[in-house]
Structure formats: structure tokens, C-alpha cells
Amino acid sequence: MSEFLGYERDDGSIGIRNHVAIISTAPYANDTVERAADIVENAVPITHPLGRCQTKPDVFQTYRTLLGYGTHPNVYGTVVIAHAGEIVDGDELASDIAETGRPSDSVNIHREKGVMNALQRAVDSAREMVQEASNQRRVPADMSNLTFGINCATSDTTSGLCQHKATARAAWRLIDDHGGRACFAETPEFFGGEHELAERAVDEETKQEILDRVEHWDQRLQATGYDVRGAQPTPDNMDGGLTTIEEKSLGALVKSGDGPIQDVVDYGAKIPDGSGMYIMDTPGHGAESVTGIGAGGAHFMVISTGQGHTLSNAIMPTIKITGNPGSAERVPEQTDVDVSEALVGDETFDWAGEQLWEEVEDVVNGKLTMSEAMGESQFAIHRIGPST
């Protein structure tokens, strides 16, 4: 398959979903966002506890992340809801979204003279967008348009041995065979493997950037007075047989394959359009990492899990893959692709990669993932500093 069926956007991007997003700029608009999304079929609420009393680096990061979702290839249009005069300005956000040609509206609870008026305005606007979106039809698009997000969750001893290998094979198939791109993250989970990873950089600048980002995370974590090696591996990792951060890191890096790394991008920043493998500088916290990659514009995410995980994203479909037969049996609703036969049976890792690739082809053409069908989603923007 060299093409998929997607939704054309005015900015030239192609989506694999056609969502209408309703985004809050601050926690005080969250309830209104949730209520509006409950009323309007196919509207996706995006709520969070940030956007107020933050230092400038955090304001910029919060804004960039929200803008990334409002302009995501899988989003047809957006309603932005603010509470009052916020540090993340709703009018500005809606205006920046509209510059991409997407329908966009800004609703302010104070300006509308109360929650009920604001809710009515948001519902009317979102409903109109959803109706317009329903008229749009999928069209053939080249696979080179796609961005493959990569993350792991609840890793165990099977992760680096099996499912991470399948993930890497599928990601590099998109890159090598179709000219697409992929992005992995979780910088603190490079600890102990960063020098091996840096050797894959396409140039000396990118190599040093990888090492600098890891060093920055090490210093940042140690500045709290708490050694990260006391927090990693996590209890569920240790339950799955991982013993040290180095062991976890070397296993985690398997999911990126062994090909060249093109660049490192900031949290929530746009993933470059060029073909190849990229790194996004995120924490190891799964919900924050996945949220950042989604903001970067990844069309879909493969979450490679050892013991099963509910981690998912409403805008960016998440495909769960495991090579742990116990996990596939224990949490079947968290398993889109079971490749455990490559670990405990007679199948090969090439077979495992093919199983995942076939699922990717189905999902980009419209098949709902398990988490989509069950309505599961988490959204967590990583923060840099304290509230003011």
C-alpha cells in the first residue's frame, strides 16, 4: 500500500481522523468544555490544569501544546473556551488556529455573561463544525504524509526483546519504503544508553544535542534532591523483571531501531516534515510524553507495552502492541496487536513487524483502535517550573 485515504486540510496536511476539538485555556473553563463535548456528538474535549499563574517558559509550552492540537492534521475545526482574561489568551489561540484555514471560534465565559450562555455558544459552534466535517470525504494521499509516534508503557523484560522490535520495524518501513517520518521520546529513559543513541545522529550538532538534553534532565532531576535512579525503573517495571535504569533504557531504545536520528525537537513542537527518525524531548511520564508527540502532529501512536496500559490519546489514535502473552490475556481490551508468538512461539520478529504494519494500515484508513472504541484518553502537558 503506497496510499491511504485521508482528509485534506487547507494548510496542506492530511488527517486520518476528522475531529472537532473543544479546548480550554485554563482549568476554570474545563467543566464548560466537558459539558459542550458531552452534548455535541464527535466533539473531543481537551482539558488541563494549566494556562494560569505560570512562568513564561511554561506559558509558551502550554500555548504551543494547545496550538498543536488545534492545528493537528486530525482536527477539522476547534472551539476555544476561556474563563476570563487568561495568560493563555483564547482569542489569540483561536486566531492562530484559523490561520491554518480551519474553522475556529473563541468563547469567553465572562464575555458571554456566564457559563450557560458560554455553553450555548460553544455547543452551537461545535455542532456546526461537526456537521460541516461530516460532509468531508476521504481522498487518496501518499504515505509520505504520515508521522508515526512511538512511546512505551509499563515496560518489562519482553519489551526490548519483542514488541519494541516490531515497533521499530513498522516505523522504519514507513520511513524507508514510503518517505514518512517517526518520532520517539522520553529523554530520561535514555539514561545509560545516551552515548549509543548519540552515535546514530546524522551530524555532530545533533549528536551533541542528544547528550546535552540527557545531561539537562539529569541535572534538573538531581536539583530536586532526589536521584532519578530511585524512581526508575518504576514499580511496575520491576514487577516485570527490569532491575536498573540502564537495563530499562537499553530496552526502551530498541523501539527506535538502529537507523540515523535526524534531529531533536522541543516538547510539543512541530515534528519536521522531512523523512526520517526524530526525537522529541519529553519526560518519561507516559501521558505527558504522548501529549507532547500528539502536539507535534503525529498522525497515530504505537504504544509498545509489556504488561498492558490504558494510555491513549483522543486526537492521535493509539495502537497498543505487546509481546507478553500474559498481558494479552490479562488486558485484552488494551491489546490491539499481540505478537507474543514471536517470543514464545514459532513466529519471527519480521512476522511481528508485519502484524503491526497491517494494523497501522487499517488504522490510518479509518479502523478504530481499542482505546478509540472505548472512549479512553488522557491529556497532560509537561510543566517546567512552579506555579506563581
Automatic annotation (TrEMBL):
Chain ranges of the D-galactarate/Altronate dehydratase C-terminal domain: 143-386
Domain D-galactarate/Altronate dehydratase second, residue spans: 6-134
Signal sequence extent: none
Keywords recorded for this protein, A-Z: Hydrolase, Lyase
Molecular function as annotated in GO: hydrolase activity; lyase activity
Family, as annotated: Belongs to the UxaA family.
Record-given protein name: UxaA family hydrolase
Species of provenance: Halobellus litoreus
Lineage of origin: Archaea, Methanobacteriati, Methanobacteriota, Stenosarchaea group, Halobacteria
